């Protein structure tokens, strides 16, 4: 019986099979722990089953992005805005019409 408490975003290794997995959610209401294996498969343990597993904490694998289907390009451009070189905005060609705001407003 293990005494390891599950933590969201922590990696663990099942010692018998050697499988690496990450805890992705803990549902306290239903006493379940959701996990994702390195190959992307998602599963769920009941808390009582979790404590019967032969597991240890593990370091994140070298390419931990695999289950999330992220590649190197996704990582590089994830926070950048992409504007194509041949970008043309149709709104740039529209000229404003004169606007009659009445006598109360004047453009200076």
Could you give the order of the helices and strands? EEEEHEH
- Please give the number of β-strands: 5
Uncertain runs are: none
- Calculate Rg over CA atoms: 27 Å
The pLDDT mean sits at 77
Count of separate DSSP helical elements: 2
- Helix/sheet category: mainly beta
| Fraction in beta strands | 25-35%
The helix fraction, in percent, is under 10%
The major β-sheet equals: 5 strands, antiparallel
In order across it, which strands form the biggest sheet?
4-3-2-1-5
Number of domain units = 1
Overall geometric form? elongated
Head-to-tail CA distance between termini? 80 Å
Describe the structure in your own words.
With 108 residues, this protein is mainly β. A 5-stranded antiparallel β-sheet has the order 4-3-2-1-5. The model has no long low-confidence stretch (mean pLDDT 77). It has one domain. The protein has 2 helices and 5 strands; from the N terminus they run E-E-E-E-H-E-H.
